[in-house]
Every structure is written in structure tokens, then in C-alpha cells.
Model the fold of this input.
Amino acid sequence: MATTRQLADQPEVGALAPTSLGRMRLGTTALVLPASLFLLITFVYPVGLLLLRSVSFPTWGIENYATIFQETIYLRVLANTVVISGAVTLITLLLGYPYAYLMATGSPLTQRAMAFVVLVPFWTSILVRTYAWLVLLQRRGLVNRTLEWSGLITEPLDLVHNRIGVYIGMTQVLLPFMVFPLFAVMSRIDRSHLQAASNLGAPPTQVFIRVFLPLSLPGVIAGVLLVFILSLGYYITPALLGGPRDIMIAQLIQEQIGEFGEWGIGAALATVLLIGTVLLAALLNRFIKLDRIWGGQT
Done:
């Protein structure tokens, strides 16, 4: 029988030697290092340079930020960006929720067909889709001609180079980003909860409002957050379909840097947009716990 001293001298079963642990850590570092370098070169360095220019061009200081919050034009553009992004988010939610509901409650064939319809626009670039809307929505375009032929209008409507065109174009592009988070959550809702509510005498409307809708709220929040954040930085669609009063912050950044060479103001505007987006995500995470939402828990 082995003595206590002999047992103590033997290595524990499953224990790793220091050399093995070192090799594992070295291997993990070697795997992570390429991705870290890629992010450092393509994201951290450009963003850091942008932040630096916002306080160093043309002179060191916070004059660029003071100008943004003192000049009416910059505040108006910031307000436009928030209003347009919020309206597009609301429109995509109103359109995407019933669409995702039909997908989640339909047959597998219906789900595949509806998913295909939503995914088709991804096969075409945003620029091409925006130009297509420009052709369709112009005064002599297909939409106005159809409305005139049906007798709904007597004169062509102004659907482009205004806020309406921006809403239509951005909604069409961003709708999939609302539909798929909603569908991911709705498809995982336990149907036994709905059946239990029906068996207890609740009508279909009450089953939806008091059972299905609360369980689908994580998908609503995820889709709203995703669409709103993507809307904040939009450039091509409002530039082509919007008018002078519909300028968003991305257009203003391009104008300041590309046309006037005002790197300081452009960098400060981009920094304000970045900080606003991060604060929004942090605020939602503080009260809603985004890690649970992205995990798809219901």
C-alpha cells in the first residue's frame, strides 16, 4: 500500500504541467494575434486618428466641438439624423413585425418563400437600389403613373428629393435588419404557451397581446436597435432621394471633408456620432441587458 508521502509526490490526474500550460497560452495567442492586428490596423488606428484630428486640426483644442454645438446648421443636421433614423425605425417595425409573424407561424415552405423575398434585395448594391427608387418615384415614374391610371390622384406627387423619398428608400434597404431578429425570436416562442392561453378561454386577440407580444419583445428591441444604429450613418440613400432639408450627418461629414477640407469639423461630427451610438447601446444594455437579447432568449 502506498504511503501518504508517496501519494502526495504523485502528480494529480488530469493536471497539466507548466510547460503544457505555456504551450496552450502561446497557441491561443498565436491564434488571436492575426485577428487583433487586423482590427488594430483597419479599425483602431483609423478611429484613433479621427479622434486625434477632431482636437488637433487646425489647432489643438475643442473649438471644433464648440462650433458644432453653437452653429444652428450643425444642430439642425443632428436633429434631422435622429428624426429620420427614428421614423425609419418605426416604419420598419410596423412593416416588419406582421411580416415576421407570418413567417414564424407559417409552414416551412411559406417561411422559405418569405425569407427569399426579404433576401433578394441583398443581391443588388444599395447604390443600384437607390437609383431604381429614383426612377420609380419621379414625377413621371411608374408609381405616379400607376396612381394616376387608377384615379387616386390627378397630378403627380413629389416623392423624391424630399423626406418621403428618404423614408421609402431607407425603409426598403433596412427592412431585412428588422425582420430577421424578429423572426429569430418569434420562431423560438414555445407554442404551448399560446395553446394554454387558448384553453383557458382567451380569444386570439388576447392571446397575441398578452402572451405572444411580450415574448417577442426581445426581437423588437434587437431589431429597433440594429435599424436605428444603421440609419444614423446612412449616406447614399438620403443624398440621392432627399432634399436640402433632409441632410443627415454622414452627408455633412462628407461635405466638410471632401468639399471644404475641414478635417477638424468632419472628425468632430464623426466623433459625436460614434459617442452617441456607443452611449445609446450602453444605455439600452444598462436597462435591457443586450447580451440576453442577442442570445435570442425569450
